[in-house]
Amino acid sequence: LPVQSAVTQPRPGATVPPGELTVKGYAWSGGGREVVRVDVSLDGGRTWRVAQLAGERAPPGRAWAWTLWELTVPVA
């Protein structure tokens, strides 16, 4: 299956103050395959950043759960 992901923080429509912003979410790849990378774009796909994956790595073929991720970025 294609990787599916959702952003959980900040919430849709949230006002983001200048400074540092932590974007959080979860991803799932299906078929027992682990998520090995999550790329996040904050500018409509012009540029991408690699998020940090949280938690322990599952053994091959045993990645049946969602993988949490987060990315901290500066906001102007």
TrEMBL record:
Cofactor(s) this protein cannot do without: Mo-molybdopterin
One GO CC term, this protein: mitochondrion
Keywords carried by this UniProt record: Metal-binding, Molybdenum, Oxidoreductase
Residues of the Moybdenum cofactor oxidoreductase dimerisation domain: 1-75
Molecular function in Gene Ontology: heme binding; molybdenum ion binding; molybdopterin cofactor binding; sulfite oxidase activity
One protein family per Pfam: Mo-co_dimer
Domain of life: Eukaryota
Biological process annotations from GO: sulfur compound metabolic process
Name under which the protein is recorded: SUOX oxidase
Organism per entry: Odontophorus gujanensis
